[in-house]
Amino acid sequence: MLGHGGGNVLGDPRVRMTRPTEFTFTFSHSAPEDKKLKEDLRKDTHYIFDNMSWRKIIDKDSTSVDDLRDIVSDRWSRPRNPFDEVFPGIFLGDASAALCMSILVREGIGFVVNAADSCSRCLAGRNCGTCVRTRQAFYNVGNIQLKAIAALDEVGFPLYWYFNEATEFIDNALATGGKVLVHCREGISRSATLVIAYLMMKKGMTAKEAVRLVRNKRQIYPNDGFLLQLCDLDLRLRGQRKY
């Protein structure tokens, strides 16, 4: 049985070995597979992303994407603040918070997780409009440590590849008594998913509990693909994954 603590809770050693700069097998909105997926999601069918393909979950008692979407969509509006403290020592925010040194220093933030680091398109000079280009040199003046993750806010992007390293970075930051800002472009999808995964992996929360806790502190809305990956993580942590 998989559980909290050491080791790779995602159960696949390739999770630690694979370091993509850009997801190359995402579904296109016009692809038949994507249309079928969206149709099944509307019917409350349980799917998870595994071994580069979507697979159906037979366990009907598992948390579904609809369950999590119901939590985040309730009276949803755009976040009012550039950042919010969603758990003691963990701030969830957008690009403006990450790029404002005065805010970081004022809040005593010593660690930053950028979940929207430059993708290959941005590195090639073609600005995608969703990345936040930050470098450690920018944060050195505030003695802030940076963890950069080049994630795309797309339904097929395997953000779970980064759950372990982001969780360890956040956990180590809090263990030293530090505060950490986890951000992406808007602070509602990529960064929110990483914070939720941390709460599940290190604080023993279920997906519903973690999503509800974060949602009560900040308006978030991870895309359906990320919600599905959290559903899968929920099953893995509870040792109840079935096909």
UniProtKB/TrEMBL annotation:
UniProt entry tagged with the keyword Hydrolase: yes
An example Gene Ontology biological process: negative regulation of MAPK cascade
Residues the record marks as active site: 184
GO CC annotation, single: cytoplasm
Domain of life: Eukaryota
GO MF terms held by the record: MAP kinase phosphatase activity; protein serine/threonine phosphatase activity; protein tyrosine/serine/threonine phosphatase activity
InterPro entries on file: Atypical_DUSP_subfamA, Dual-sp_phosphatase_cat-dom, Tyr_Pase_AS, Tyr_Pase_dom, TYR_PHOSPHATASE_DUAL_dom
Enzyme Commission numbers on file: 3.1.3.16
Pfam families (alphabetical): DSPc
Catalyses which reaction(s): O-phospho-L-seryl-[protein] + H2O = L-seryl-[protein] + phosphate; O-phospho-L-threonyl-[protein] + H2O = L-threonyl-[protein] + phosphate
UniProt cross-references to SMART domains, sorted A to Z: DSPc
Top-level class of the enzyme under EC nomenclature: hydrolase
Family per similarity comment: Belongs to the protein-tyrosine phosphatase family. Non-receptor class dual specificity subfamily.
Name of the protein this chain belongs to: protein-serine/threonine phosphatase
